[in-house]
Specification:
single chain; alpha+beta; Ku70, Chain: A, Domain 2; 2 domains; 7-stranded mixed beta barrel; 9 strands; extended
């Protein structure tokens, strides 16, 4: 059971409901320790007095606002809590907006908001269901751990979700930050029609379970291989930029390839079909099918080949180069 990281009350209008805040996501990144090269000695960070060089206890540390010239305004942690005692315990909804009005760049972190007890579930569910039916998002502010947050409160199935948002002055203007931006209306004509066809051909239903962190898997395989004294093959370089002259051809080939890919079964599916057919194909037909499959596999990147090898659980795939992956996939499909 997760532990609440904040508790207080949620208010909208004159309605108040006690709530608790819980982290909605977790980090699955492979973490490394910092060591001194050629040793197993851990590197540790300490809070050290810059003048004396001595370590300072956490309780002896206060906040200082730099006035310049070596002068500071000293602020105690308790003083920060005292200036907003109510704000640190209240999520106050000031209005409701359509979710699509909040641009993605403003979203930061996501939390679950839960009622603080069984006796508050009725009011909690009333707000959740009303938000869901109206397709609205509550905009609110609250203070947590000495910092005020702008947040968006929205309904998911059975739970309220709270997103912390960036303040307007924290979001950079792309026209001021980016060296090159196209003008609106530059994309048109046959290229636009073909790009829309490609988007249509690649349109799918959102299913987050279909995606996983392949880079993390590669990191784990790298660690495992090095622990066994083995080497791991590096990935290929990224593809080159599309030449504007060849844009139409690239779009057309992309649409055709996507359509054929959806009609064509994967190597694993072909293997299952062969097994279900009882292996009726003779050796020459199998050899021909393998050659056809190899030609198709050669068009894929090494990363795509590796994903297929992972799906088929091909042993030793992490140490294979592109040709070896193609050979192993062709063998698995035969």
């Amino acid at each position: 059971m997760a532990r609440a990281i904040w508790s207080g009350v949620l208010t909208f209008g004159l309605v108040t409901v006690p709530v608790q805040l819980f982290t909605a996501t977790e980090d699955h990144t492979v973490h490394f320790r910092q060591l001194q090269r050629d040793t197993s000695d851990r590197i540790r960070y300490q809070r050290v007095n810059e003048r004396t060089g001595k370590e300072v206890d956490y309780d002896d540390i206060v906040k200082g606002y730099d006035l310049g010239g070596g002068d500071y305004v000293i602020v105690e942690p308790d003083e920060l809590d005292e200036i907003a005692p109510g704000k640190s315990q209240v999520v106050e909804i000031t209005g409701f907006v359509d979710l699509e009005q909040v641009e993605p760049v403003y979203f930061d972190r996501t939390y679950y908001l839960a009622p603080k007890g069984e006796e508050y579930t009725g009011v909690y569910e009333l707000l959740r269901a009303a938000l869901e039916k109206e397709n609205k998002t509550g905009i609110a502010t609250f203070v947590m751990r000495g910092k005020q947050y702008l947040v968006a409160l929205r309904a998911q199935e059975e739970v309220l979700v709270l997103h912390t948002l960036h303040w307007a002055d924290e979001v950079r203007d792309p026209h001021q930050e980016l060296p090159v931006l196209p003008g609106r209306g530059e994309a048109k004509g046959k290229e636009m029609d073909m790009a829309r066809q490609l988007i249509g051909a690649l349109s799918i239903d959102w299913n987050p379970e279909d995606y996983h962190d392949t880079y993390e898997e590669r990191v784990k395989e790298l660690v495992d291989a090095k622990a066994k004294g083995q080497e791991i093959v590096s990935e290929e370089a990224p593809p080159q930029a599309t030449n504007v002259i060849d844009l139409m051809e690239a779009l057309q080939r992309s649409v055709d390839q996507t359509r054929k890919g959806r009609e064509r079964p994967s190597p694993g599916q072909r293997k299952v079909k062969r097994l279900q057919a009882g292996g009726k194909k003779d050796g020459k037909k199998k050899e021909k099918a393998a050659r056809g499959g190899k030609d198709q596999l050669k068009q894929l990147s090494k990363g795509q080949l590796y994903e297929q090898a992972t799906e088929l659980d091909i042993p030793g795939r992490s140490k294979m180069n592109k040709d070896e992956l193609i050979s192993a996939l062709t063998k698995a499909a035969s």
